[in-house]
Amino acid sequence: MSNLSLTSAIPKLIRAVPRSRNFEAMLIFWVSGIHAFALAQIQLSVLQIMTWEMLLYWAPPTLSAMIVHWVLRKYAVKADGLMLPLAFLLNGLGIAMIYRLDLAELAAGGSDLFAQRQVWLSCFAMLIAAAVIRVVPNHLALRRFPFISGLAAVVLLLLPAAPVIGRTVNGATLWVGTDELSFQPGEIAKILLAIFFAGYLVSRQGSLAEIGSRVLGVKVPRAKDLGPILLFWFASLGVLIVQRDLGTSILYFGLFLVMVYTATGRGFYIGAGLVMMVTGALVASRFFDYVERRFEVWLDPFSSANYTAIGGSYQLVQGLFGMANGDVIGTGLGGGFPQLIPLAESDFIFAALGEELGLAGVFVILAVYLLLVYRGLRIANSHPDDFSKLLALGLAFVIGLQVFVVAGGVMGLLPLTGLTTPFLAAGGSSLLANWSIIALLLIISDSSLRSNK
Amino acid sequence: MSELALFLVRIGFVAVLWIFVLSLLSVIRADLYGRRVMSRLAKQSGPQLSQAPVPELDIDDGDAFEPTKIQMLTGRSAGNTLELGEKKEVTIGRSPGSDLVISDEFASNTHAKLVLVGDEWVLQDLSSTNGTFIDGKRVTTPVTMTAGATIRIGTTTFDLRS
User: What is the pTM of this model?
Assistant: First the structure.
């Protein structure tokens, strides 16, 4: 009798937790296995033996991912099941690659190490993501503060130009803080800008899409509707020109275009945006020599003048040689020479991975990004509320565009920019921002399934 | 470690990465094409076993209208459906807290609601600014929904269907 009631209770118990959570747990185990494999492979091929030191790079991120998973189980049980494992996979691969570069640095007698730092920053970022999931009960609350978020974004963008705390590294004024502890406020600003655009566009999308006078056959919206958006956009672009960072301004511009287009469904914005972009690029290449140099390097990286110039194409060409050395299946982790690429642990981690994992590995990494963005777009598509749709779309697009610009830059298909590779590159601000994006997308997906119930 | 072993490890690692991505693709596949066949089978076998007399009642009461979902016909979310499921009440409006969110300039925040009374869905206008219409007639008192009746709010139309 008791046996019978127990067996009938089992389906109930299983149904209490959605399939996605159990699947997610399984994937996290799998991903942490992949990370262990990567670290073991690195130690075997560089040090010839496996040491316990590898646990230092493996256990803390795995534990943090499990904590995020546990928080999801507790507070957002219906959230998407793929995003956390996908982001965790990329994060761990990044740590493994940085550890591998550290070993090369130690072998060369250097002491510029990044991996331990990256491990703790990753854990910190994941715990912040867990806190966001726990503390933000409903992302719709964010809808109430579009202008505050917009203003905060502009202030954050301006911070690095402030006298005492601002810092300039490699020509770009993007950091605040001291030499030991620095932060890129622009990374957080992109989330705030997405919130601002979503909140503003959702309240005005009707008038932006329908009302307006016809000029040369296209409907131009009223200045009243377009004004605040253009104002914020000019402000953030102006800030970026002052800070001399091309990538970030492309990112904000793309985010702006895509969100306006999605909110209104009017091709006018895409057309006008592309015209503005091309004009802007041409003007910038005329007036800013750093943009001009980027263009020259992009168009002719192998000319000896560009190769030998300071800030020339040396880094890009080293990356291209590395990826060529990697061939289809790569040299294997620990088998190549990614340490020869300057900044291989941050800006050029994509090239370093391309060398050691080869074309096959790069395709996996791009596929993982694709899945991540796809899940984000799916969350946007299936959510009943417009603000959530726009916000999810904007956040997913931020990740996608960054990967596009960085991968394109490293492969020599686009001019090189200062954007970071999400989750892979060494750097705390970027990890923090991207994990917060994942947390927000998870919250949105959770609420979408709730309201469909 | 021998060259051969390292080579195998290196191939193995890329293979594991690929297996991971491909196994995720199987999930995406279910996303794209749905689990329709499975869920239909499950629906058929479930209620038939437990509520065998129900079909007979249906035949007696030929014009009973038991919608299972709301189909959006025109407007920004045209083509979308909202499953009624076990719901007893569906609030309709522009506010994001509504069960059925209507993004329409002419919709009020809480515009109208559908309430299940007995086994009939009744549409009630919640004194909206621009009115709710059933087949072109403005709703002033609660109206019982019939099969094929189209509800219009602003430029958004939708109906109940099974």
Answer: 0.78
pLDDT at A293: 82
Q: Which amino acid is at A431?
A: L
How far are the Cα atoms of A208, A234, B62, B91 from residue A269, in angstroms, in the given order? Answer: 10, 16, 53, 34
Distance CA A429, CA A436 (A): 11
pLDDT digits (tens, 9 = 90+) for B64-90: 678 888 888 888 777 788 888 778 888
B85 and chain A: CB distance < 8 Å anywhere?
yes
Residue A143 near chain B (CB below 8 Å): yes
What phi, psi does A216 have (nearest 5°)? 55, 40
Q: What's the rounded Cα separation, in Å, for the pair B38 and A153? A: 48
Contact B14 A361 (CB under 8 A): yes
What is the Cα–Cα distance from A194 to A393, expressed in whole angstroms?
A: 9
| Residue A330 in contact with partner chain B when CB distance is under 8 A | yes
Number of Cβ pairs < 8 A linking chain A and chain B: 86
Report the C-alpha gap between A101 and A48 in whole angstroms.
16
Beta carbons of A301 and A412 less than 8 angstroms apart = yes
Spatial CA neighbour of A80 closest among A451, A369, A440, A453: A440
